[in-house]
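Support case: pyridoxal-5'-phosphate complex. Customer-provided input:
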Amino acid sequence: MGPGPSNAAPEVLEALGRPLLGHLDPLFLKILDEIAEKLRIIFRTNNRMTFAVSGTGSAGMEAALVNVLEPGDEAIVAVNGVFGGRMRDVAGRAGAKVVSVESEWGRIIEPDDVARALDEHPDAKAFALVHAETSTGVAQPIDAIAQLVKAHGVLFVLDTVTSLGGMPVDVDGWGVDVCYSGTQKCLSVPPGLAPITFSERALDVVRSRRTPVQSWYLDVGLLEGYWGSDRVYHHTAPISMLTALHAGLGVVLDEGLEKSFARHAANAALLAEGLVTRGFSYVAPEGFRLPMLHCVRLPDGVEDASARASLLNDRGIEVGSGLGPFKGTCWRIGLMGHTSRQENVARLLEAIDAL
Ligand code: PLP
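Agent response - structure generated as follows:
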């Protein structure tokens, strides 16, 4: 019940243990096609170039930013926690001149601040935002910001590492150009792949670059050779992880996205009630809290390190520590994917009572 990885679904663990197929085996290529198809449903997109980057969520972040940004480009990055900060770092390393739109940790990014930054930087090429900020538990509303970004014609890069599969993500509806995620949160697959999708507009931007993509490994133009119809070798695909992702996406879609969202919301409400009753308080304001990640201040009498050690050692329950300004005073409790279950909420609350 930490901030990820979540527990893997049994179907995923079974898939991980299967004998290997070759990465150009026709059966495996069929699995790749099905992964892309399932990801299109979960991302809500028709984007042709929808696939899984070999690497964790941060590899997805790098792939998104290094493909669309070149040295000298201007990028606007929203920062209200660790992962917005990481995007700013990655965009800067890609050579972009980065402008930040900041909010206090635990608060949403305000559309008015985004509007101001877009007005002040009319040449900005991309705007990057985190949907579910895992360091604070804040759920970022997207609609108003998406409209602003669209009106300015800027590329929209969105991090859905923690949200995908556990709450609605609407890539085409929001006009997102590059959206990436990770496998180890609400998809209930071990860490190791980063689902990603590029709009045709984003691919056109990549094709018209003045300079080659700085990362050979993450160059979407080269990856298209493998994930597209040519099926040419780029790097040896992580067969077992992709087979596991295929199984995990199947589990999510068999449950149904709406049902998964409803389960995450219901278990979140149950946990919130139990935590607040016990004196915990949420960092994120009401109405802007993630269902899959609860960042809560500890009540008097609960000492961070010793209480977490007791939950882990005596009960086998992991909860995450606070990050940044919340270190030592907050916990981050995950109810992601397969871990989002009523019995887990009950076990945790009972364990807290026994501290
Ligand atoms: N973005 C967000 C919102 C995250 O929560 C994380 C990881 O927790 C990442 C990016 C980076 O993903 P990873 O740790 O899988 O590289």
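The CA atoms of residues 2 and 319 lie 4 Å apart.

Case will auto-close in a few days if no follow-up is received.
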